[in-house]
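Onboarding guide, step 5: your first structure request.
Type a short instruction followed by the sequence, for example:

Predict the 3D structure of this protein.
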Amino acid sequence: MDKPLVLILHGALGSASQMKTLFGSAPDFTPLFFEFPGHGQNPDLDQPWTVQLFQDSLEGFCRMQSVPMYVFGYSLGGYIALSLALSRPELFKGIVTLGTKLAWNKSTAEKESSRLNPEIIQVKVPSFADTLKVRHGENHWIDVLRKTSELMHSIGINPTLSISRIKNIKVPVH
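The system replies with structure tokens like these:
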């Protein structure tokens, strides 16, 4: 019996390589790794990061696979998968999320994005700054922080998901 294919989605500051460390030798399923634009080794697009941009990228990737898939989405990866499932349920067999923040507003966006100051990270958590430099590139990690902060603010102003909208997702979600 073939192992099921599971699409693995990283979080806001993550990358496919980070998820490969966790799921690279999964005994019960075959992992398929996706990387959002501008993360890790995936080149950035010359436009702001939005939920719609990430949804469109994920939808294109899913359509290339030509079969509905199970998805594991960590944090932002879960948010994007759930958002896409609202309009394109045929792409998914089921979605599992971990650490996905669903309750966004201006206040929560401000709080979350305040943690993304590169100068403070370099001083207070230099090992994390070094990890981000390796993960996204010496010259790109600060852009990842800035664009992620902008994305959080846009989600806080206009959240794609709400409890009432999540109830409309037609695929199993855990």
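Each response can be followed by summary notes, for example: The mean pLDDT is 95.
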